Amino acid sequence: MLSRTASNLFWMGRHLERSETAARLLDVGARITLLPNTEEGYRNEWESLLRASGASHAFSERYGDQIIQENIESWLFFDHDNPSSVASCIEQARESGRIVRTALTSQVWDGLNTAFQELRALERKRRSQLDPAMLTDFTTRHSSAVRGAINATQLRNDGWHFINLGYSLERADATARLLDVKYYVLLPRVEFVGSGLDNYQWQVILRALSAHRAFHWAYGGDITATKVADFLILNGESPRSLLTSLYEAVWHLDGLARRYGDQVPATAKAKAHETLDALVAHDIERIFDDGLHEFLSWFITEVSSISNAVHDDYLSGRM
Fold first, then answer.
1. How far apart are CA 299 and CA 179, in angstroms?
2. Boundaries of each DUF403 domain copy (predicted)?
């Protein structure tokens, strides 16, 4: 497969998953701001969300210090100047699909095109008619439809591996960033840790990841920081956990290595296996002892290194 084709398939998967992440971030912020978390009442948590997403600087260049829900909705969903907004990601995913149209089934292309056309219709609506829940539902519905078409109709060839490698790496990064929102949404005093407010914020993370019911199936009982973090980091049965996402990335890299053999370097595969081994060596107590934010920062950096290695091995014109 040509590197250009592989790159478009890889980034099609990444952009589709990234669009869902932006929508879920918006949902997290909207849910958390509904609950007062200081003695003074409601606090603006949108800045925390921007910091966790790594978009504070770009947002401030666009909107200044006006960190309000209306601007956040525009930035995360509609703003084409934000390359990680839902609108930008869906547009880029469709463009990648158009370039490699002959490598996609008609069902996958129809899913991409439908999402793009319905997005255009949504952009023409008055913003007052829209709310974060509606925008999140729109995004997750179309993302799931395209993902389902990919796994139901695409050949299990190298193109399929590249699409799903993009998905899994982006999902690993996204789950880590959504978890990191909880770090940035700091409670006003240390004695609030373990309180109803603290547990509510963890519940918000679960709901934003569509993992609330699955969590209760796996753990039952009360929602606690330790249980939620374990579910979203180290539980191999959790579909969005860091461990599951990294396992999937490793599996697809192994599949590509079997197909291409010595034709391409195995740097990405080796790095992914190394990161997976390091992740498996952790337990949740160690993660909290060392610091959840520090662990997530390490993991995000590792995923970025794997992504860079994928580019060097497969997408930079060597194939």
1. 12
2. 1-315
